[in-house]
Amino acid sequence: xxxxxxxxxxxxxxxxxxxxxxxxxxxxxxxxxxxxxxxxxxxxxxxxxxxxxxxxxxxxxxxxxxxxxxxxxxxxxxxxxxxxxxxxxxxxxxxxxxxxxxxxxxxxxxxxxxxxxxxxxxxxxxxxxxxxxxxxxxxxxxxxxxxxxxxxxxxxxxxxxxxxxxxxxxxxxxxxxxxxxxxxxxxxxxxxxxxxxxxxxxxxxxxxxxxxxxxxxxxxxxxxxxxxxxxxxxxxxxxxxxxxxxxxxxxxxxxxxxxxxxxxxxxxxxxxxxxxxxxxxxxxxxxxxxxxxxxxxxxxxxxxxxxxxxxxxxxxxxxxxxx
Length: 323
Known about the structure:
transmembrane; transport; single chain; mainly alpha; two-stranded antiparallel sheet
C-alpha cells in the first residue's frame, strides 16, 4: 500500500479589500480651492494693488540699484564676515583656554540679546563716541590726547582719520552691525556642527601628524558642514529680509528705503510694499534653490536617498531576490 500524498496547504483567496474613504480630505480640498480662488480674485481685481504702478516702481533705476548694491551686497558681505566670525567664536568656545571660552560666551550673549533694529539704530549714532573736534575716528596713538601732553610730546600722532558719523551711518556701518549680530548666531550653529562630528575624527587626524588647526579645516569642518549648511541657509534668507531694517540708519542705497520714499512722494504706500514683497520673494526663492543644492552636496554619503524610480525598482528587486 502506498502512503497518501501530503496535501498542500490551501492558499488564501483574493482579498476583496475596500479602500478607506476620507470624506474630510475632499471637504478640505474644496475649502482650500474656494479660499485660493477668493485670494486670487482679491489680488488680481482689487484696485488697491495698482499693478501697473507696482511694476513701474520695481523698474525704477534707483530701486534696482538699491536692490543690488544695498540688499544683495549687504547680505553677501554681512553673511561672509558673520560666518567667519561665527566659526572663530565657535572654535574659541570649544577651546581649553578659559579666557577664550569666556570671551566667546560674552560676545554671543551680548549680540544675541540686542535686536538688530536697535543695534543698527545705535550704529547710526555711534559717531558720537568719536567727535570731529577730537579728531574723529583715527589710527595712531590711542587713548585721549591729554595722555600725549602728559608725556610732553607734541605734534599730530594720528596716521589716518575719518568722520565717524559718515562711516557708521553708511554702508560700512550697516555691514558691521549686521555681521556682528550674525556672528553671534553663527557661533552657536558652528558649535553644534562641530560637536556633531565624532571626537575620534580629531584624534585620528592628530595621530597621523596633523596640527589641531589643520585637522579642524581638513577633517572636522567638512563633516560638520552637513549640520551647518541648513541653518546657515535659513540665516542667509533671514539676513536678506533683515536688510529692510537698514532704514533705521537710514541707508539711502537700500531697496526698501527707496521704495518707501517713492510711496511717500506718490501716496501709493501699499503698491510699493507689494513691489518690495515681490523682490524679496524672488531673491528668497533663488537662495532656497542654492541651499537645496548645498545640502545635497554636503549630505553625500549620509542616509539612503534614492533619486529615480529605476533605482527604487532595482533596490526592491535586490531585497525581494535576497535569501
